[in-house]
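[SOLVED] Need 3D model of a two-part complex

Original post:
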Amino acid sequence: MQTLTQRLANPTRFMELSARILPWITAAAAVVIPYGLYLGFTAPPDSLQGETARIMYIHVPSAWLAMSVYALVAVSSFGLLVFRHPLADVSAKAAVPLGAAFTFLALVTGSLWGRPTWGTYWVWDARLTSVLILFFLYLGLMALRSSIEDESLAAKLTAILALVGIVMLPIIKFSVEFGNTLHQPASVIRAGGPTIDNALLVPLLVMAIGFTLMFVAMHLKAMRNEILRRRVKSLQLAEVARAQATQLAAAE
Amino acid sequence: MDLGPHASFIWSAYAVVTVVIGAIIAWLVVDGRQLERRLADLAARGVKRRSA
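Solution:
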């Protein structure tokens, strides 16, 4: 009996399946995110930070995605290097720019939250600096891939760099526990449960679900585009080969 | 809606997220359409995949 990953290993089957589920995931994100925004803007202001805490409803989901998308890139890279799964590189390549975008959003929204809360847009502390390094790591993955013409080699080297870079995830996660930082410690995903009040926690979790659904939809679409891109390239190569064969036959 | 003295920071954060996410969605949709058009052009010229 085939496993799910074996069934999805066929790009044609993936295209059929993703075409069926993509509209549903997109619709779910389009419903959940506005609902989360409604909850977020009708929730009471934070007792300490006041209205500025409403930035949390977009900052925290972006930051969670910045890290979890990198974990997805690393798992996909592992799948390419170890199992040679045909869709693993497609998944990694499609996820990297999306992860870079969510990391950028986490940095910018955090900076805009930091100015009224800490009195500064930026400090070179453990949490902020480690997330900035994650952003540069995403850019490095894109730059490395685009700098190598041989796509197979580029995929393997990018996968190796992605696996090395996974060391950033625990550094970011625990930077607020052990590092010198202005950033508050974890208040949702922590031992002992969330410390945040339900009135603020529920909108935050709804937004996190909405952002995750949105990412899944974006990732599926980006994977579909990447498969189409590879088909276009192989067809163009086939067309060139056919033209060369025709010329050769005519010359003989 | 009165978001207090720091409203500009809150609206700026939401505006940046809207612009970036909107740009990604637009890029994904336009890229997909262009690729499908190129595939259709190639198919119209009789170029086929070996597995097809």
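Edit: Residues 29 and 46 of chain B are 26 Å apart (CA to CA).
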